[in-house]
Structures are given as C-alpha cells and as structure tokens.
Amino acid sequence: MANTFWTLFLSLLVACIGVLAWSWAPDRSVDSLKARWAAPPSRFVTLQGMQVHVRDEGPRDDPTPIVLIHGTSASLHTWDGWVAALSPHRRVVRMDLPGFGLTGPAPDGDYSMARYTGFMRDLLDLLNIDQAVLAGNSLGGGIAWQTALAHPTRVRQLVLVDATGYPLQPQSMPIGFRLAQMSWLAPVTQKVLPRSMIAASVRNVYGQPERVSADLVDRYYELTLREGNRASLTKRFQYRSSDAALAGEISQLRQPTLILWGSEDRLIPPEHGQGFNKDIAGSQLQVFEGLGHVPHEEDPEATVQAVKSFLN
User: Fold this and answer.
1) Is 14 a member of any domain?
2) Could you tell me the pTM of the whole model?
3) For the sheet containing 132-137, what is the strand order?
4) What is the tens place of the pLDDT at every residue in 107-134?
C-alpha cells in the first residue's frame, strides 16, 4: 500500500509541475511587446504619469473627432475594423486605457469611473480636441456616458456598444474575469496563465465563437501579460459596485445617442440596451442578431454602417 501511495503522489506531483511549467507566464515588459502591438501609427504620450498608447488617424481638420474607448481587458486594436472604415473621412482617436493594453497600470492604482472620466478629459486636452463623438464598448461605454455627464460641452454625440451602466447580472462570465475577482488567487494568476483560458474567455463573449482566430487570441493573451495588467484587472473589479450606483444618472444624458447591442451578449444582456434606450431621451437602439458582447470586433462591417448612418 505504501508503495502505491507514493507512486500516486509522485505521479500527481509530476503532473502538477508539468501543468505549471506549461502555463507559466510571468509579466512581459512593454518594450518586448511594442514591436508587434505598437507599429505605426501607434505613439505614446505622457499623461497622468503614464505612457499612454494612442493611435490618432484621419484628417486633421475634422472639427469633431471620433474617440473610441475599449472595454475591460481589451485594447485599442479592438476597433481596427471601425477605424479602417471611418478614418478616410473622419479623424479617429483610440487609446489603451489605464490598466490595459500597452498603457499598463495607473501609478496610484485608481480605476474608479471618476478617474477614467478625468483621464478622458485630460486626453482630449492633450490632443487639442474641444468636442468629440465618444464611442465605447462595455467599460468603455460606461466611461463614454460618464464623461458626457461630467463634461457635457466636450461630447457632441454618444455611441454605446454593449455598455456598462446598470447593475450587472451576467448570464455567463469569462473564466478570466471570474478568476480576476478572487484576489486571494492573485499570487498564482499573476504568474500562471494558460493561453487556452484566454481563448475560452474570448470565445465566451463572441456570439459566433468560430470567428475567434488564433491571431485574435494571441493579441488578448500577450497584452494581458503586459507587466502590471493582471494586478490592475483585479483592482478594477473592486469598483464594480460603485459603478452600478451611477445608473440613476443615465436619464440625465442629453447628447444624441446611438445604442448598439449584440443579441447574444451573455455578459451584459440586451435588456441593458433596452434600459439605455428607455432612459436616454431620443436615443436609437439597434440590436445585431447573432453577435455577442463585442459586436464591433466580431462584425465591424455591419456595426460601423449603423455608426455612419447615425453620424450622417
């Protein structure tokens, strides 16, 4: 019996070591990631003690640039399809938010909505943008409408794409998000990250998971490894309850607003889109059948057409 026990114990130990070795993923420096993810027209601007990853494309004389704000654990690359369609005629600005992408952690660890709206104000100032169209997905949508409330003269129009705003009761949540909320797991999750977990998380937010390519998983995986991003995600989730407390302010919005939603969004279900449409006077709602939580990334061609019609 003793020999059998030790044989099983050693087998399990070897298996555990093998899993750890296979999924061992320490932080990567931002410099090691720039070659692949910060090619031109990327640049870095100094703002609030950070080197913020920005892309600013399209005609310089556009009086009302379009500013695109990504969601949790995403990056400015999520808007590639929209930028390709919009930038020939409009100035389009996008950035990696503090805590995500190549911008990385906020120096003070503050990921509150107030901090993000202050960041957007300062970024508009830095880029000499007096007034903009703000478009945001998920967390980025929440930042967009909160910025419109905090600085109404700076926001001409709003485009909310599966945006945060109401108390979140997801039908399904990516495994990466679930683990990030377990702060006691941080010593492990900040060193171990199976690529398969990122792949499963991305597929979870797509309405048609077969659209998730290997290159797309690479992007989410490698930018998650940017030094400090995993710790930032854990801190960001600590602000969810305070975000939900802001829902009563949505009805104060006065900007013309387009609301886009994926019918298969299980993280922020379509009922939330209906809520925005009800609470924002004069807003327009368009639901895209078969798409999930990131419809702008999953089907940029269809979704950007709705944006073009709204802007025109």
Assistant:
1) no
2) 0.91
3) 43-47, 50-57, 92-95, 66-69, 132-137, 155-161, 257-262, 284-288
4) 999 999 999 999 999 999 999 999 999 9
In a domain, 13, yes or no: no
CA end-to-end distance (rounded Å), the chain = 78
Largest CA distance in the chain: 81
Number of domains in the chain: 1
Residue 287 main-chain phi, psi, to 5 deg: -105, 135
Looking at the chain, the number of H-run helices and the number of E-run strands are 14, 8
Residue 163: pLDDT band with limits 50, 70, 90: very high
Label the pairing between strands 66-69 and 284-288.
Answer: unpaired
Residue 33 to residue 20: CA distance in whole angstroms: 23
Please tell me whether residue 151 adopts helix, strand or coil conformation.
coil
30 contact partners, CB below 8 Å, separation of at least 6: 51, 102, 104, 226, 227
Could you tell me the pLDDT band of residue 1, with boundaries at 50, 70 and 90? low
For the domain that residue 137 is a member of, what is the CATH number?
A: 3.40.50.1820
In a domain, 59, yes or no: yes
β-strand partners of 136: 69, 160
Contact 111, 239 (CB under 8 A): yes
Q: Is residue 207 part of a domain?
A: yes
Compute the CA torsion angle 50, 217, 199, 182 (nearest 10 deg).
Answer: -10
* 96 and 102 Cβ atoms separated by less than 8 Å: yes
Give the structural domain span for 132: 27-311
Which DSSP state fits 97? Answer: P
Per DSSP (E only), the strands in 73-148 are 92-95, 132-137
